[in-house]
Task: structure prediction
Amino acid sequence: MTVHIGVIGAGMIGQDHIRRLTEVITGATVTAVTDIDQARATEVATRVGATALPTGSDLIHSPDVDAVLVTSWGPTHAEHVLNAIAVGKPVFCEKPLATTAEDCLRIVEAERAHGRRLVQVGFMRRFDVGYRQMKDVLTSGAIGTPLIVHCAHRNPTVPDSYVSAMAAQDTAVHEIDVLRWLLDDEISSVQVITPRATGKRFGHLKDPQIMLFETANGVRIDLEVFVNCQYGYDIQCETVGEDGLVRLPDPAAVGIRTAGRHGTAVLQDWKGRFGDAFDTEFGEWVAAVTAGAEPTGPSSWDGYAATVITDAAVQSLESGGEVITVDMKPRPVLYGATS
Amino acid sequence: MTVHIGVIGAGMIGQDHIRRLTEVITGATVTAVTDIDQARATEVATRVGATALPTGSDLIHSPDVDAVLVTSWGPTHAEHVLNAIAVGKPVFCEKPLATTAEDCLRIVEAERAHGRRLVQVGFMRRFDVGYRQMKDVLTSGAIGTPLIVHCAHRNPTVPDSYVSAMAAQDTAVHEIDVLRWLLDDEISSVQVITPRATGKRFGHLKDPQIMLFETANGVRIDLEVFVNCQYGYDIQCETVGEDGLVRLPDPAAVGIRTAGRHGTAVLQDWKGRFGDAFDTEFGEWVAAVTAGAEPTGPSSWDGYAATVITDAAVQSLESGGEVITVDMKPRPVLYGATS
Amino acid sequence: MTVHIGVIGAGMIGQDHIRRLTEVITGATVTAVTDIDQARATEVATRVGATALPTGSDLIHSPDVDAVLVTSWGPTHAEHVLNAIAVGKPVFCEKPLATTAEDCLRIVEAERAHGRRLVQVGFMRRFDVGYRQMKDVLTSGAIGTPLIVHCAHRNPTVPDSYVSAMAAQDTAVHEIDVLRWLLDDEISSVQVITPRATGKRFGHLKDPQIMLFETANGVRIDLEVFVNCQYGYDIQCETVGEDGLVRLPDPAAVGIRTAGRHGTAVLQDWKGRFGDAFDTEFGEWVAAVTAGAEPTGPSSWDGYAATVITDAAVQSLESGGEVITVDMKPRPVLYGATS
Amino acid sequence: MTVHIGVIGAGMIGQDHIRRLTEVITGATVTAVTDIDQARATEVATRVGATALPTGSDLIHSPDVDAVLVTSWGPTHAEHVLNAIAVGKPVFCEKPLATTAEDCLRIVEAERAHGRRLVQVGFMRRFDVGYRQMKDVLTSGAIGTPLIVHCAHRNPTVPDSYVSAMAAQDTAVHEIDVLRWLLDDEISSVQVITPRATGKRFGHLKDPQIMLFETANGVRIDLEVFVNCQYGYDIQCETVGEDGLVRLPDPAAVGIRTAGRHGTAVLQDWKGRFGDAFDTEFGEWVAAVTAGAEPTGPSSWDGYAATVITDAAVQSLESGGEVITVDMKPRPVLYGATS
Result:
């Protein structure tokens, strides 16, 4: 049984996911593609033997589409996701679920009214082997109750279009989601402080930033976001508990000794770091859709929470570093007890 | 376009490869299964929507089989591979290609007569990310001309059925294949020496063993084979060149600090260590078959070489540690210049 | 030429330094000892062939004392150091230089009036090989201008007598000194935040604490102080600069693989971690005294700065986490340009 | 109480040990110096306030010499050590104890006749923290009975005067001594095999070499000696036992991430690697002499054994790789049960 997937948005990320669905994992086929650029939709559709459709709505209603993948421009996400819920089809929406908390809430409410989960949001870190090992260690109790998490999220460089608020919205949002899941806890406040800025950035950008989070259970998280660190793409996470700590490994790479140095290569982008996680993410999603089961990945509630928390982080940044309380609605029963 | 694969041998390894072809990678489907145990063939075939056929020959000749996977009992490999060559179908044969050097040579000769490569032998290490990084480093010249390779191949335990000769035939054979490929060089002599045996083995077994290889270019390889090392499954490889060295990484795993120790888990079997390599191996094979291209993995010549070299290792072991010269036929042009 | 040292305070730390001066390093001898407990002074003095004297003042004025080591109870430090300055003798004072900023300033002023440096304060981390390597890397420019420092200071447990303010005064004070020196920068504000407390502490204690420092140059420092971390004594420090980062190594220790784990032992106290640094500290101090040169280690100004900054940290802790500006006097020329 | 030491041989290594005795460790003073170059003896003696004496014999008989340090040219060692034994003075002899097995045996016999140990031979690795940790692990039984040891001894380069036999005599001799001690076992045979030689050596030199040792208990040791490895000074040792393995750590050094690489510096010579071991070696020797106790370091029997084993290694090298049985006399009771 093969899941027929319709893809809304055939840009770079959409094409990469189409490649994943058609060339890497098994159990899925792409049957329909749409894009605001109709020529691009046609070209991509033709490449994989799919049909190009004029609009997202056409695609969602197509009888040849079992499940919908939304990889279009962020501001259009909410409409497509709501349409998919309206027709009761599973929908995988790349982050963000929506660009405003209000729109996220509309999706949550629509899904709640539908009565079962249809939406998965594209936060891939929950599918990374290292984070999963860390989650297992936390669950096992081996390091006791978590108290502190130290994180770093570093990119070698970003383009001029990257503005200061994106440190929260586009970058830290991955840690926000994965930490809520790792700790099974909710983030209750945020503070963003700004160290001396690196000279190696576009002048408008505050980089690096340090984000401080507190959770409902009192765990403190410090996250360095440094998107022009020059040396590589580097993701660090260490959780300190009452009895010990657990730390993400660096990616395995051959060690080389030459010319007085012992070392390994550092990755240069997220594709090398999280490529396997993306494969697992889609593999598990397709398996759930095939089984007619609810998706097991990040929910629309998680998408809402991520938006509220990043909004608070941006507010803190813009206020010059105030502590901002995260103001979140009560969680509907559909989304379980905590995160 | 989906490759139709017929599988000969539905035992544990056969079923694992069927799972891989049907549930992990894309582009292939299993259409036929046979096994000496007809009931098992039927059960496995039913599970994946394939047809159970009475014999390997039936399967190889079936019009619904584009390519053949041989995972039956070792002594039957040669016959199936020769049959597949006779009808011009691509065939992936689990190691060993054949149980005798003579049979391997018959396959090489048949393939040479056919005029192009049809056979790939199931040595998966060439598809492991770490070995591929090491190969890239060697090819780049970063450590200069290779001079020495230090290796270890350790299993936690083996069953009573494992006898001393299997240290070469079943265990070291993986290093033999991957080192010939890494070094782009041929092994010319073997010597097996036996340290004090561990008390934690069945009494009939010489374990550990140290195998010393010399290559045509004068590279010296020492390989510790220790199949009852107790602590885990551990693969080590370090190549020392004129300007430096390169070493396989340990598999990435979260680091844990508790109770006065900093540490990581050691894997317990080859599935965790080489699972991704198996996926890549089959993914690339299916891609080559789909493209109508020659396979890029280990050839029947590599299968022949592995058998001749392991025979020499067993001879050295049984002689009490003599240096045995590897006596290999000239390599046909079909198989390229070196390894 | 052997330096004759008089030791004020023959408690545990005093005796350990006496052992260091007499049994480990060369070039010094202990000629006089005093202690509030006269019997202990006599016993310790006898052991090393020194004279027991009734008071610190007697010792400082003794013609058989070239240089003074103050290892008595903290509140007595200022008086002894001022007395030593008054007679122009070099004095090594264990931390703290004095228990109040006012007393520290009196020492600074007395030394300034004397016209050259006589005082060294016992912050030993500047003598640790790892921190010195880090300093060399920073000085070399290899990682560019420093922007952020991440630190952790963990002890397995502390006794009941350890109170919340000591996290700054006794524990973080080491990082405060070494970071001022590493960065060649001054700390300008402090904020202490308190994560969920570990259950494995005495009830009165806030543990762990996270201290956030900002420097005059805008560098941001986060320091986890966790004095009941259970698993070991663990000091971490990572400096992130514009072009890369540099991180303290874990102490070298043999790696062991057994029973499914690869690991190393974690130290259990500061003696193993900083024993060599203490030896170097006293070796370099004795060499400077022998040469008649000013000491090269932490100055009385550094002792003053450490006290002002720890006072600010305690104030932040007690305020519930407010950002406290460090209010430091102008630095006299005697103490150089920055730290 | 200060030990008065007379030093025979004031060349580079002699001067370095004099520095150690006078400037680093406590409890010793150098009172007399002699050298074949009388001017050098005078200069060095003057520098440390010692007396320059015309001959080794004068020095050994001087009433102002409690203990003798022999750091002269190798062929003169035996005579000085025998003279020291004749007058019953403790003597520390740099390796080799003597240049022939016969001379070593004469020393062993003289010491045996004297009735207690006076001689310590300058193998410093037994004093290295890493090897001591490994010894503790072996003694604890944590990895079970040792079966195999993998070693590497690499130098960046050697001068033209270094000839092939020195790979055993000057380089591998350190592993030979430390492994006999680590394993508490005797080496019974040696085989030296020669990989392809590096092009980066003087033409007369066989480099690298692989030395294979077997012990009385059947442990197998492989040792790579590579004295022109270019990249650094690198000492590796891993002992594999029935239940696990223990490995020497790399020296601690700050980790640096810049320009796509994560790495640490590799040491360039033995001074950085074994400087602390030398300090400990002399500290413990001086303590034993002070206490009037027998030395605890390598004995004259260990010096003899090292010479016999390196002779066998050279014989194997010159034979083209034959296995050479080590022919050692029975061990006198004075030297304990095994090594």
Observations:
- The mean pLDDT of chain B is 96.
- The longest helix of chain B spans residues 270-290.
- The radius of gyration of chain B is 20 Å.
- The CA atoms of residues 5 and 30 of chain B lie 5 Å apart.
